[in-house]
Design a protein that fits this description.
With 64 residues, the protein is α+β, with helices and mostly antiparallel strands. It has one helix at residues 11-22, and strands at 26-27, 30-31, 47-53, 56-63. It has one domain (2-63). Helix content is 19%, strand content 30%. Strands 1-2 form a two-stranded antiparallel ribbon. The chain has a two-stranded antiparallel ribbon with strand order 3-4.
Length: 64
């Protein structure tokens, strides 16, 4: 990713190009593509909740 920068140590350039540079990086959680606000554009996650079931607790997926 930093190979695409004119001056890899320049934080101003990194800030300016971060969104476009993110499209070239893939890590353990997949491609790091950012939207125009700097948030991950594609992310898969579940929402879990601890629920009381029959006098014990279990994790239940309540959303995606």
């Amino acid at each position: 990713m930093f190979e695409q920068m004119e001056q890899p140590g320049d934080s101003a350039e990194l800030k300016e190009k971060l969104i476009s540079l993110s499209e070239m990086y893939a890590g353990a959680t997949g491609w790091m593509v950012l939207d125009e606000k700097g948030d991950r554009k594609y992310s898969l996650y579940d929402i879990w909740q601890l629920q009381n079931v029959s006098a014990s607790f279990e994790w239940s997926r309540i959303g995606e």
